[in-house]
Amino acid sequence: MAIKKKPAAKRKPAAKKRIGGIASYVRSVFNSPGVKKVATTIKSLEAKLKAAKKKKAAAVKIARKKMK
């Protein structure tokens, strides 16, 4: 009867060391697609708000001229 050998235990690769700590974590969070999407949404809303404020200012100017 042949003697069965136990399969050699597979070695797990060493865990990757984190370099930078908090700074690299923050960078990875800021570069995530979700944050980028929210940032573009906020920028577009700010642009719309700016345009609305200009329109309102123009309307107020016209209204004041009519009041005189």
Give a brief description:
The chain is mainly alpha-helical.
Largest sheet: none
Strand content: under 5%
How far apart are the first and last residues' alpha carbons, in Å?
113 Å
**Structural class, from secondary structure content?**
mainly alpha
Q: How do the helices and strands follow one another from N- to C-terminus?
A: HH
Q: How many H/I helices?
A: 2
Q: What is the arithmetic mean of pLDDT?
A: 86
Mind telling me the C-alpha Rg?
A: 31 Å
Estimate percent helicity. 55-70%
Question: Any idea what the shape is?
Answer: rod-shaped
Q: Which spans of ≥5 residues are poorly predicted at pLDDT below 50?
A: none
What's the assembly state of these chains?
single chain
Describe the structure.
The chain is built from 2 helices and no strands. The model has no long low-confidence stretch (mean pLDDT about 85).
Main attributes of the structure:
0% strand, mainly alpha, 2 helices, 65% helix, single chain
Question: What is the topological layout?
Answer:
Layout: H1 22-30, H2 33-67
